[in-house]
Amino acid sequence: MSQPRIVHTRSDLQSAIAAFRKARERVALVPTMGALHEGHLALVRLACGKAERVVVSIFVNPTQFAPHEDFDKYPRTLDSDAEALAGENVDIIYAPGREEMYAADFSTRVLPDGGPAAGLESDARPHFFGGVATVVTKLLLQVRPDLAVFGEKDWQQLQVVKRMVRDLDIGVDIVPGPTVREKDGLALSSRNRYLEPKHREAAPALHRVLNESAVLISRGAPIAQVMTSARHEIEKAGFTVDYVEARHAETLAPVADAHHGPVRLLVAARIGGTRLIDNVPVPHGKD
Which of 4, 19, 34, 76 has a CB 3.0–4.6 Å from the CB of 58, allowing a cystine? Predict the structure, then answer.
């Protein structure tokens, strides 16, 4: 079983990357905040199929958490994460400390403005995409990979990163990885461990309602009507809904009907003390 090398500094990271480049090997980056689960490992395997060398970053990024959110209790499990990555053909685990990423006098941020960053998570968490865009930009510049893999579960984040890379001419391919789910449909997430048993039992309602809504829209049902019903069904399951909306899958602009697609349905909702997100595509045509 191969054990990835763990590095904590930019200098050690870049020395390793320089050796890969000298050998003319393609490099893939899989950015994570740790607490790895099978969804993360699926992204790693996707990266391994597309590059000779794979770097997995593990960094709980403070700039994407608001003061009232769960930064302090977010799981930090580097030892078990390293064990999970052993045997996955990962070459480097890049696990910088906070001071390595953000010096005491750090003062420059990347702030997405409009486009796919408009609405949804930006309304619910106004600080979020500025934090994500800044740390992702730093990681891409530190690793300088040929490609970076991001999960489709965070659909809006994926589109924001793709637009940012395009707009800033960063020169890396952004590769989407399909959402991995439990047998009952719940999307895998590091935050699922926070769910109390009764809330875990109710949680698959998010995916079920989105799927049912997507089918109705694909068959011609009015989007506004379907999404209103979806909100009621999700609330009936015990959630407090931040949003449940139909958006253009790439631009994330609001859509009036399925002809303005491709269409993606996105939801964020809280149950107990846990906030969950999910999304599904609306199928093409009438089934």
Answer: 34
Distance CA(223)–CA(218), nearest Å, equals: 10
Query: Edge to edge, what strands does the sheet with 53-58 contain?
Result: 5-7, 92-94, 53-58, 27-32, 147-151, 173-177
CB 53 within 8 A of CB 193: no
Return the pLDDT at 33: 96
9 alpha carbon, distance to own chain's centre: 24
DSSP letter (8 states) at residue 191:
G
Q: Minimal CA–CA distance to 41: which of 98, 101, 102, 88?
A: 88
The pLDDT score that the predictor gives to residue 195 is: 97
Q: CA–CA separation, 4 vs 94, rounded Å?
A: 10
What letter represents residue 100's amino acid? E
287: tokens are: 């089934």
Count, in order, helices (H) and strands (E) of the chain.
Answer: 10, 9
Topology, domain 190-280: Pantoate--beta-alanine Ligase; Chain: A,domain 2 (3.30.1300)
Which positions of the chain have pLDDT values less than 70?
1, 285-287
Q: What is the DSSP string of 93-143?
A: EE---HHHHS-TT--------SGGGSSTHHHH-TTHHHHHHHHHHHHHHHH
pLDDT of residue 287: 45
Residue spans per domain, the chain: 5-177, 190-280
Catalytic residue, chosen from 37, 40, 199, 248, is 40
DSSP state of 254: B
Q: Identical fold at 5-177 and 190-280?
A: no
284 is catalytic: no
Element (H, E) at 241: strand 240-248
245: phi then psi, degrees, rounded to nearest 5: -140, 160
Q: Which of 87, 96, 124 is nearest to 34 (CA)?
A: 96
**CATH 3.40.50.300 applies to domain 5-177:** no
